[in-house]
Amino acid sequence: MALYKIADFDPDYRDSFQGNDIKGSGVYAEGNDDKIGNISDILVDEEGHFRYFVVDLGFWIFGKKVLLPVGRSRIDHGADRVYAVGMTRQQAEALPEFNENLVLDYDYEERVRGVYRSPDATSRTNTQTIDTVDTSTPLESSASLDTATPLDTSVARTTPIVASESRKTADTPVYNRDSYNYTQEPSLYDLNDRDHQTLRLHEERLVASKKRRKSGEVAIGKHVETETARVAVPIEKERVVVERVTPSDAGKVASGDSTAFREGEVAHVELYEETPDIRKETVVREEVRVSKVVDRDTVEAQETIRREELDVNAPGLPIDER
Are 188 and 52 in contact (CB under 8 A)? Predict the structure, then answer.
């Protein structure tokens, strides 16, 4: 029967207490209202049931921590107190000290249970019946009571119970280490099922999330279109005009004219003309810039959700709801 610190068993255990964390609460003796100490931790079994409160007896016995079975306690959340039912100073002194460096096995728990089982246990513990727990045996999972590695119970089969047989009387039930179960002693361990049940009321809520999916794609490419373009180019072309006219000095004697009576080429004129030079060249017409923008919108959804409410059926009985 492995035991775990509650924070190691369930790191979110405070959510179950709805803001009333028992750790740190003061422990008082039932009846006389004497303060015994404080709850320093809670030990739970493999199913998460409370089994022990670790009580720091700083107010009674300085520096000593002991285990208080949850069935011997009464929790007052309003006063932030835990009352130890039937706890006496003699019982506290007789309880074996809780130390994380020790093996928390069946034998150790039997020593604890032996103090609470019978009223005369305190008188017997002043003799040799309850000894100091052997500190030479380390608690292999004691560093943090890791939930992944339960407390080593192998030592429980090899470490004898000190004077266990001498403590048993005719009216004391005999428990077997191999078959022992916490349900066999409801007076010590039935807190979860008797006085302090924890009910969780559930409700549904809408959880809005978004999924990104592909809605389409845009492919951007180019194609070539053709058309017939026309261009007008003005050109010039030279030609020779031969004009015969009668000079004003016609009939006068021509003297010294070197061209007189000369045959062959007497004048040379070069003619030019322009021809169109049509060619194509590539120029930038425009730029196309491609980018993405995000359009935002709000989508509203409506669903029917459920919520649990507590129904208390206790006609004529006083109920204190906090």
Answer: no
Torsion sign, CA atoms 67, 71, 73, 79: positive
pLDDT per residue as tens digits for the range 186-225: 888 876 444 555 556 778 888 888 889 998 999 999 999 9
Per-residue buried b or exposed e for 115-133, using 16+ beta carbons within 10 Å of the residue's own CB: bbbeeebbebbeeebbeeb
Comparing C-alpha atoms, which of 8, 98, 21, 15 is closest to residue 52?
Answer: 98
Stretch 11-37: mean pLDDT: 79
Tokens linked to 136: 């030479």
- The answer to whether 189 and 70 are in contact (CB under 8 A) is yes
- Rounded to whole angstroms, how far apart are CA atoms 59 and 37? 5
At residue 68, the 3 state secondary structure works out as: strand
- Residue ranges per structural domain of the chain: 4-189
Which three-class secondary structure state does DSSP give residue 28? strand
User: Which CA distances in Å does 312 have to 19, 132, 192, 200?
Assistant: 22, 48, 19, 14
| 277-306 mean pLDDT | 91
Cα atoms found within 13 Å of the Cα of residue 196, Cβ hemisphere only: 20
3-state helix, strand, coil in the chain (%, to 5): 15, 15, 70
| pLDDT reading at 162 higher than 70 | no
4-189, superfamily in CATH? Photosynthetic Reaction Center, subunit H, domain 2 (3.90.50.10)
- pTM (predicted TM-score): 0.46
pLDDT tens digit string along 167-192? Answer: 444 455 678 888 888 888 888 887 64
